[in-house]
Amino acid sequence: MMLFTRQPPRVLSLLLQAAQRVERRAQGVSLSGGCWIHLEGERPETGEDVHSLKTSPLGQPPRQDDIGCQDSPSPLPTPTPASLAGLPRRRALHPPTPSARPTPPVPGRANSYPRTLWPPAHSRQPPPEPGRRTREPPQEPLSSPGRKRRRSGSGIERQLLQGAREGAPLGARPQPRAPGQAGRQGLAAPAAGSTNGRARRGARRAAPGGLKTARAGGGLRTRATPSEPRARARQPCPAGAQSRPAPMAPETPAQGPTPRYFTWDEVAQRSGRGKEQWLVIDRKVYNISEFTRRHPGGSRVISHYAGQDATDPFVAFHINKSLVRKYMNSLLIGELSPEQPSFEPTKNKELTDEFRELRATVEQMGLMKPNHIFFLLYLLHILLLDVAAWLTLWVFGTSFVPFLLCAVLLSTVQAQAGWLQHDFGHLSVFSTSTWNHLLHHFVIGQLKGAPASWWNHLHFQHHAKPNCFRKDPDINMHPFFFALGKILSVELGKQKKKYMPYNHQHKYFFLIGPPALLPLYFQWYIFYFVIQRKKWVDLAWMVTFYVRIVLTYVPLLGLKGFLGLFFMVRFLESNWFVWVTQMNHIPMHIDHDQNKDWFSTQLQATCNVHKSAFNDWFSGHLNFQIEHHLFPTMPRHNYHKVAPLVQSLCAKHGIQYQSKPLLSAFADIVYSLKESGQLWLDAYLQQ
Hints:
The N and C termini lie far apart (126 Å). The chain folds into 3 domains: 1-115 and 154-174, no CATH class; 261-345, Flavocytochrome B2, Chain A, domain 1 (Roll), CATH 3.10.120.10; 363-685, no CATH class. It has helices at 12-26, 81-84, 155-165, 197-205, 264-268, 299-303, 311-317, 321-328, 349-364, 372-396, 400-425, 433-447, 452-464, 486-494, 505-512, 517-532, 536-582, 598-603, 613-619, 625-630, 639-653, 662-685, and strands spanning 35-37, 41-42, 49-50, 55-57, 212-216, 219-223, 233-234, 261-262, 278-281, 284-287, 332-336, 608-609, 659-660. A hairpin with a 2-residue loop joins strand 5 and strand 6 (219-223). The longest helix has 47 residues, at 536-582. The model is unreliable at 1-7, 29-76, 87-101, 106-124, 140-154, 164-174, 176-196 and 202-243 (pLDDT under 50). The chain is 43% helix and 6% strand.
């Protein structure tokens, strides 16, 4: 095969004459005035390999640096690896034209050079005009889909091209690789440009580090596999090949969604009913608009903190906070802006921080851990009193004295069961909510005949916003039955509203207050509550109570006697319940929600009764109402231990810590009703 390089048009005829002389010489014809053109490849007559292109005058041996021809006016250029990279596959019989330029090879892949270096004679175009650009027809790459790959030229051509690409000197035979020897740059032999597809796939599998080869730009580069997600390497390009690295976008670390920031003004606007409701916990903003109906503690208790910071009540009411936070993630919509304080300006920052430190100290002291023996004995004493009440009638008969004694014992059972269910309802007996809820259903449902959901619905609101009008259900008798609190009574009088003669409310309190609350209101409302809200589990527990008490006492007393006993028990229990629960709240501050900090909110709405064994038992340890409201999940037997710490914090910040005797607490209820009634009358009569 003859090799040609680009020459000016004036030497084309000379090159054709030289080719003819070579052919005649091979046929034994003597040429004169010509030149030798040594061919690449193997001479058929001698079997000698030729790896260089040389020309020399006829009759003289060629020299290594003799590239010219005696008939050529200008010498031929020296072949280089770059020029050899585009050698034709077959013998070219037509000289090149200035407009015919070879297509550059695809680097990193053998046998990818074009099939012909110059177009045939019938397709040659005349030289273009100076300054005019010619358009070259696109050439289809060999690796295009659907195109069958063909083997390139002879073995001599492949060896020469491979040596040129690997940087071997011109004319040197490429050295064969040993079997299994790795290729260049860590790629397994054979080279990526090999025409053997099976060997090439094996080379990729044998590549170290799990790297795969890819062709891009003008050379080989490695593509990282999943074992090395960030590893990137680039193989050097073959000698003489001009390559341009593929542009790579700068890698930036993956970032999550940018959090949304809000101000307290934006949060405060989402506090109304029927509208969007937000609240803040630990500076995170949650949208509770749809969640309120699914809240386990009730929809109203969480709605009372809409538009406010609820960090302290959240910590106070939940015993498994990590579990609750997982469910809260779906409600998270953002957080407070960095320049915003952690809570509203209406709250005392120093007092809030110190109370949180106090809570941490209480937890470290172990005061939040219950004594299960205490609650077990408490439950046993209730069951014994219940059995004693029935034995009184069964042993001593149904006369007046045994009947009255039985009523007192059953009233004690109902009151003490009320204090015990209060402990289970606040999750202060067991470390898991499941056991607390189960025992809560048993005590309030089986022992008292009331629904647990009804108690949760009312009582948690009371703890969240004590003595806050329209948020605490315990003061819902204002204004229809009583005028409560100094501020609300004056406001009611200025509005000229009179639903009852409030100036006499301290008198009719003894008629419609303690005696009538349970037998005339709660006893019937609880059935309406469970049926209207479809609380069938609570209804089932309630039915077990009524079935048990009917089967136990109707055989002894008859139906009329049983109804008389039952309502007498409810009457006594109602007086016990109202006096104990209202002595800590009615005499205290009552107003609309002022959105104060947790500590101040609880202290201004509660007071204590002195500690004694009787007071603790009679009130179910609710004589420590301050400590109970600050730490709702604390076991009741630890209230007296944390009381000194609370008193010191109150003294430091000038907050009044009220504690009084039991009878004085009862009397304060009447005195506060009389005072608020008089304030209402003065405002009502004022023009």
